[in-house]
Amino acid sequence: MRSADPVVICAANNWDEVKLADRHMAEHLTEYAPVLYVDPPISHLTRLNAPEVAPSLKRPRLRRIGPRLTRYTPLVPPKPMAPAMLPLTNRIARRQLRRALRRTGAERAQAVISTWLFVDAYGACEERVRAYWWRDDPVAAASLWRRPAERLAAGDRRLTEDSDLVVSVSEGVAEELRERGVDAAYLPNGCDADFYAAVDDVPDPPDVGLPGPVAGFVGHLNSRTDLGLLEAVVAAGASLLLVGPRDSSFEPDRFEALLARPRVSHVGPKRFEELLPYLKAIDVGLVPYANTQFNRNSFPLKTLEYLAAGRPVVSTPLPAVRSLRTELVSLAESPLDFAAAVMRAAGRPREPSLVAERREFAAGHSWSARAAQLAELLSLSAGSNGQRADAEHG
Questions:
Q1: pLDDT at position 381, please?
Q2: Fewer CB atoms < 10 Å away: N or C end of the chain?
Q3: Cα separation of 46 and 37, whole Å?
Q4: Rounded distance between C-alpha atoms, residue 110 and residue 33, angstroms
Q5: Is residue 393 part of a domain?
Q6: Residue 199: which domain range?
Q7: 284-287 vs 313-315, strand pairing mode
Q8: Domain check: are 75 and 135 in the same one?
Q9: Is the pLDDT of residue 56 over 90?
Q10: If pLDDT is split at 50, 70 and 90, which confidence band does 388 have?
Q11: 203 within domain boundaries
């Protein structure tokens, strides 16, 4: 029988940022246990560089998000991840985490799922299971995250060694860890299939007026992106819709030249809840990622999200996409082959049966299914009427 003790998710992303895997998983894991979602520790100065997280600093910092789901924001001194400050950050974050857990009415956690490479959350909640959620290749991410590779590697080693279980979005990484004697499981990202089911019933986006066919990319525009693929798609005759934040340091001249083309539109970042009209506007979803170690070990959320919206997908041949083992995603590597695959997909009629097949496939990879897999790995069980948090105080 399952207790009412929560699962604590030490998340990679602040709740107020773009909705990514940790928020999706937290919401669906509540079917198996109460969940305490813990934002990455921030200081009062964080809002200067990341204004989108400013609401996190408002009281109460422990707040109920929904049934069986509570969110907490640890507040620490400025520059919390600087080597000189990290010992203090650890002490404060661990003390606040323990206090937040007890304020939910629990004395210990069933499990702590951590993505924190620098802050050690283990032990603060007297958890039964410690799980490292390996979401990205930390060493390969050094330039993206603007952190020294050696510090990221050290954090990765610590988490791997201190965890009872490593859950990886990369099938290859999970296999490699198992060969080293680590208890590791493959758990790819999922999608909110129900959310995308209404994509064709929403109004058209007011800031898009591109002629068809429209190829669309939803995600961060940064060094992960192969601009040559996007340039080739436009040169082949498709319009290009870009939705997401842009790294201003990423090939600025070349990117501006792409945006200057008449059939290209970049609408900037959009919240998860705002995405449907933009997915309605596209005919083909793109996963134009370069062949880098970081990308090879990643699992792009957008692949399944395009399918859930009923759209065909063209992707570079990333291992994660290959692991889906479906012909519903076309794979192409060179710019010419990528553009040709896009034009073939765009030229195919949007047959109801094919749209339904894409959506059915995506539904099989829902976040609900992923939460069920994770619950099994953590030995959780559904069906408890556990005590809910009373977090309506600061």
A1: 66
A2: N
A3: 19
A4: 8
A5: no
A6: 193-363
A7: parallel
A8: yes
A9: no
A10: very low
A11: yes
Query: pTM of the prediction?
Result: 0.89
Q: In b/e form, how buried is each residue of 205-237, taking b as 16+ CB within 10 angstroms?
A: beebebeebbbbbbbbbbbbbbbbbbbbbbebe
Q: How many domains does the chain have?
A: 2
Whole-angstrom distance, CA of residue 327 vs CA of residue 322: 9
Structure tokens at 365: 């990879």
Residues 186, 304, single domain; the answer is no
pLDDT > 90: what percent of the chain? 87
- Residues 319 and 170: beta-carbon distance below 8 Å: yes
- pLDDT at residue 3 is higher than 80: no
Q: Is the pLDDT of residue 178 over 90?
A: yes
Alpha carbon distance 244, 269 (integer Å) = 4
- Token pair, residue 245, equals 């934040």
- Mean pLDDT for all residues in the chain: 92
Helix (H, G, I), strand (E, B) or coil at 302: helix
CA distance 133 to 17: 19
Look at residue 57 in the predicted model and tell me its pLDDT.
Answer: 85
Q: Which two three-digit tokens encode residue 157?
A: 């080693």
Residue 321 falls within a domain, yes or no? yes
Tokens of 207: 């800031």
Residues 216 and 138 in one domain: no
Same domain, 127 and 48: yes
Q: What share of the chain is helix, strand, coil (3-state, %, to 5)?
A: 40, 15, 45
The CATH number for 77's domain is: 3.40.50.2000
222 sits in the region (left: phi over 0; alpha: psi -120 to 50; else beta) called beta
Tell me, what amino acid is at 77? P
**pLDDT tier, 389 (very low <50, low <70, confident <90, very high otherwise):** very low
**pLDDT tens, position by position, 212-271:** 999 999 999 999 999 999 999 999 999 999 999 999 999 999 999 999 999 999 999 999
E-assigned strand segments in the chain: 7-10, 35-38, 62-66, 69-72, 111-114, 129-134, 165-168, 184-186, 214-218, 239-243, 264-266, 284-287, 313-315, 329-331
